[in-house]
Amino acid sequence: MTHEERLRDFRARFPNKSLTVRGTEWHYRVCGEGARPLAMLPGGELVNDLSFDLVAALAPRFRIIYPAYPQANALADLADGIAAILDAESVPRATVLGTSFGGAIAQCMVRKHPARIERLILSNCGVPLANQVRKRRIANAGLAMLPWPVLQRMLARSIVKLLDAPAQDRAFWQGYAADLVGTRLTRAEVMSNLRNQLEYHERYRFAPSDLASWPGQVCIIESDNDLFGPERRKAQRDTYPQAQVYTFAGGGQSPAVSRPGEYLEVLGRFLG
Question: How much is the pTM?
């Protein structure tokens, strides 16, 4: 099947469920035939279908909880919402895979709800750092001043660039990104997400001792050319000295898309 056919099939097979948590409506998909629970937390795309191919590959082995993010005022609200979804689906503990922005939520969640997480996979994300606050404030202020059509075009180009899909798949992802920012995301949702990314660096500080009593395992997936740079990748490895680490050579920000076979192998070794 083509990418378009696989995406349509994914959306049809796994329709969104809804849950209201403290007055906020969440949407999430439950995918797969396996018994082992896996919560997949999306990145800054905010929606829960970009990783449709990854879900299809993991579905025979896992019961996958795949939320989309509502507009939220704080990262803690997102962590609580995901915990509430696990409650609604009778999942006491799950492996959590957090990708990019989803990795920030996963790191907050393992500290706020440690008993809910069995294993933690941090994929192409970073820890909160004080030296990022000023950069984030400036960037957010500049983006807030842009007209929405201009910001939409910037976001669509950024998504395609970050996915770094093979050349033969690029047209599909360009269409996906254009539809995402053109019809599925609102300006309010995008700006809320940018504020939450700023809050991550303003409010949170993590240390290796945070998880001293947590018995779970950690896997860090990174690329030597992802967004976070050598210093920020080192800061994350230093925060989780117990972690298994896999570094993609030239994998970019989204190795699940740019190098899907290798990415599945890495997940398989950790989850096996």
Answer: 0.96
